[in-house]
TrEMBL record:
Species per Swiss-Prot/TrEMBL record: Brassica rapa subsp. trilocularis
Annotated TM spans: 423-446, 467-485, 548-566, 586-605, 611-629, 731-752
This protein's UniProt keywords: Coiled coil, Hydrogen ion transport, Ion transport, Membrane, Transmembrane, Transmembrane helix, Transport
Record membrane topology: Multi-pass membrane protein
First and last residue of the signal peptide: none
Record's keyword annotation contains Ion transport: yes
InterPro entries: V-ATPase_116kDa_su (IPR002490), V-type_ATPase_116kDa_su_euka (IPR026028)
Protein name: V-type proton ATPase subunit a
Coiled-coil intervals, chain numbering: 100-127
Length: 794
């Protein structure tokens, strides 16, 4: 038996890459170049040897801070370019690499220049807006002043900061409550304040004025004919011109304070028409000059931003790379002489030669007299998990990693999920018409793969594009299962020949007691189309899909148990094979494996057998204590033997075991062995498997349930929407029915049902399949690579 097991393959392709812990001793003069070349290679994950230090206490903290400041300036330039609406394509000619110090100096100069231009532009824009508002107020307020002068007498008008007083004026129709004042009317003349305010503040502004003056004011308003740009937000704002007529110095003070509080700008408007025209000409002249100045300033600013934009992409990449290099250098330690940096990290075993060549090239390019020392270390902790993937397998690997990263060298479920995941999806989604729609969507994503991969997509579109190969396989398997179910938008077709059944008489299709009669060989592939619409359609399809779901579930759970055997054999755990894998296989197949066998026998021969044999029930009953008791006691025995051997060894001459490293597996096993804890853990695991065998088998019935629901929904939309509308002779009703059918198919069957089947297939893999063998307590291999940080937003 052992010889047979030794001859079995090791499943190397199904496991993560073998990892090696290496140590680097790098001279200081070549450290930067070595780390840069390793970042370009992207196959070494550095360990942080300064984890106990804060970021500000590390050696290259100042360089990281400088890179962060340059990143801030580059983001500022990018925001300014986007705000200006410029599109600066990078130059295609090769630009020489720039030193970090020179780049820092250039960025500082460009930033100061742009900030100064922005400041001047804001001041000019504010002045321009004030003059523009002044012009609008002069034009709009004239109408109010002319109408008010029709009720006024007297010639003398006082102009003082935008308020005007007619000392000899007696109003024929006084303001509200003016008759109740005790002082004579001629001591309080009529004044006005003109200005402009945002439209959204107008109602509250008018209400506040009315309350503050207790109604002793007359408020006139008119909208401005043009929108004005707000300098702070660069948005066009709609404003309202107002003129407030009031009486008294106290009211004037209150109105001016309210205008200031609401952000209303007040402008002096002369009552004399001649002065108004002269002032308007002066304002228009200054506006023309300011427009020319603003246009020239905008062109100059755009030229400066374009000069930066041509090299912006290259500069952003350079700064990100430099920051990543110094962050990595901060993970290294100085040796005793302070002349070398010592680093440790994980790399795939196949990459050791490449890393060694890269380090030699970096030493040569930096003209260092001392080479880099590169050697392998003995690892105590568990290595990271690294799977090499391609465009097809990457999406499936991400689905598995969303549940948990595989333990180092553990069997990888993603390899099997490439086939089982889209197939279980298709069992629930089987309709080759809907599968063709999914296929068209997947082919569209594949056809535009190069273009979409270089664009910044939204979250939903990015998810679809990342899973384009998953959608492709789901579509192909859906077409396959749809051909088996013989459903094209719920309509059966005689694709592979004629039906094997016919009606017994002409009333067969309308009868409920007379069925179909078989008169020829069975339909060669899939479900016979004559089952559609017959009285036995639902019982037949329910029986078929329910039994098929059980068979698929038992097959996938057995695959999970077989993978647990290969895991135990790979890690050399014979206890897991003898006291876990074997009783689990016996329990599962004595009950549900035998049930699956009976289903296949009945399908093939039509005969029926006893549901269960006493021998099988007895084997399943024995398998439960077999899972529970032997393993904890075997672990306890191994621990006791090891502990006694260690004690006698210490009494002799060896002192190796006295200094067990605190992080080693042996130290933990000896110090933390707790028999009661192990027994309880095994008890929970055994109960979970026994109960889970029943619940997981029943869980696979979701394949039957969702397939039935999808088929019935398709039938309802086809018969109750499309056929019902097609029964009318009116072309409009037919078009409405076709549109409703198309929308129901697209949004309910192709979107909601796709998502539902996707999530149910995900559950079957995460729980029912992977729960049999997958630990998922590893951690990802994250190498230092410029390719992985190029698109990160800092």
């Amino acid at each position: 038996m052992d010889d047979f097991l030794d001859k079995l393959p090791q499943m190397d392709l199904m496991r993560s890459e073998k990892m090696t812990l290496v140590q680097l001793i790098i001279p200081v003069e070549s450290a930067h170049r070595c780390v840069t070349y390793l970042g370009e290679l992207g196959l070494l994950q550095f360990r942080d040897l300064n984890a106990d230090k804060s970021p500000f206490q590390r050696t290259f903290a100042n360089q990281v801070k400088r890179c962060g400041e340059m990143s801030r300036k580059l983001r500022f330039f990018k925001d300014q370019i986007d705000k200006a609406g410029l599109r600066c394509s990078p130059r295609h000619e090769l630009e020489p690499d720039i030193e970090l110090g020179d780049l820092e100096r250039q960025l500082a100069e460009h930033e100061n220049e742009v900030l100064e231009m922005n400041s001047n532009s804001e001041k000019l824009r504010q002045t321009y807006n004030e003059l523009l508002e002044f012009k609008i107020v002069l034009q709009k307020a004239n109408g109010f002043l002319v109408s008010s002068n029709a009720h006024a007498t007297g010639d003398e008008t006082e102009l003082h900061e935008g308020t005007y007083s007619n000392n000899g004026f007696i109003e024929t129709s006084s303001l509200l409550e003016q008759e109740m004042r005790p002082e004579p009317l001629n001591q309080s003349g009529l004044r006005f304040i003109s200005g402009i305010i945002n439209k959204d503040k107008l109602l509250r502004f008018e209400r506040m004025l009315f309350r503050a003056t207790r109604g002793n004011m007359l408020f006139n308003q008119t909208p401005s004919d043009e929108e004005i740009m707000d300098p702070s937000t660069s948005e066009m704002v709609e404003k309202i011109v107002f003129v407030v007529f009031f009486s008294g110095e106290q009211a004037r003070t209150k109105i001016l304070k309210i205008c200031e509080a609401f952000g209303a700008n007040c402008y002096p408007v002369p009552e004399d028409t001649t002065k108004q025209r002269q002032l308007t000409r002066e304002v228009l002249s200054r506006l023309s000059d300011l427009e020319a100045t603003l246009d020239a300033g905008t062109r100059h600013r755009n030229d400066a931003l374009n000069a930066v934009g041509y090299s912006l992409t290259k500069w952003i990449t350079t700064v990100r790379r430099e920051k990543a290099v110094y962050d990595t250098l901060n993970m290294l330690n100085f040796d005793v002489t302070k002349k070398c940096l010592v680093g440790e990290g994980w790399c795939p075993t196949f990459a050791k030669t490449q890393i060694h060549e890269v380090l030699q090239r970096a030493t040569f390019d930096s003209n260092s007299q001392v080479g880099v020392i590169f050697h392998v270390m003995q690892a105590v902790e568990s290595p990271p998990t690294y799977f090499r993937t391609n465009k097809l397998t990457n999406a499936f690997q991400e689905i598995i990693d969303a549940y948990g990263v595989a333990r180092y060298q553990e069997a990888n479920p993603a390899v099997y999920s490439v086939v089982t995941y889209p197939f279980l999806f298709a069992v629930m989604f089987g309709d080759w018409g809907h599968g063709l729609c999914l296929l068209l969507g997947a082919l569209y994503l594949l056809a535009r793969e190069r273009k979409l991969s270089s664009q910044k997509l939204g979250s939903f579109m990015e998810m679809l594009f990342g899973g384009r190969y998953v959608i492709l396989l789901m579509a192909l398997f859906s077409i396959y299962c749809g051909l088996i179910y013989n459903e094209f938008f719920s309509v059966p077709f005689h694709i592979f020949g004629g039906s094997a059944y016919k009606c017994r008489d002409t009333t067969c299709s309308d009868a409920y007691t007379v069925g179909l009669v078989k008169y020829r060989d069975p339909y060669p592939f899939g479900v016979d189309p004559s089952w559609r619409g017959s009285r036995s359609e639902l019982p037949y399809l329910n029986s078929l899909k329910m039994k098929m779901s059980i068979l698929l579930g038992i097959a996938q759970m057995n695959l999970g148990l077989i993978l647990s055997f290969f895991n135990a054999r790979f890690f050399g755990s014979s206890l897991d094979i003898r006291y876990q894998f074997i009783p689990q296989m016996i329990f599962l197949n004595s009950l549900f494996g035998y049930l699956s066998l009976l289903i296949i026998i009945k399908w093939c021969t039509g005969s029926q057998a006893d549901l269960y044999h006493i021998l099988l029930l007895l084997m399943a009953f024995i398998a439960v204590p077999w899972m529970l008791f032997p393993k904890p006691f075997a672990l306890r025995k191994i621990h006791m033997e090891r502990f006694q051997g260690r004690t006698y060894g210490v009494l002799g001459t060896s002192e190796v075991d006295l200094d067990v490293e605190p992080g080693s597996a042996r130290g933990h096993q000896e110090e933390e062995f707790n028999f009661s804890e192990i027994f309880v853990h095994q008890l929970i695991h055994s109960i979970e498997f026994v109960l889970g065998s029943v619940s997981n088998t029943a869980s696979y019935l979701r394949l039957w349930a969702l397939s039935l629901a999808h088929s019935e929904l398709s039938t309802v939309f086809y018969e109750k929407v499309l056929l019902l509308a097609w029964g009318y002779e009116n072309i409009l009703i037919r078009l409405i029915g076709l549109v409703v059918f198309a929308f129901a198919t697209a949004f309910i069957l192709l979107m909601m049902e796709t998502l539902s089947a996707f999530l149910h297939a995900l559950r079957l893999h995460w729980v029912e399949f992977m729960g049999k063998f997958f630990h998922g307590d590893g951690y990802k291999f994250k190498p230092f690579s410029f390719a992985l940080i190029s698109n990160d937003d800092e």
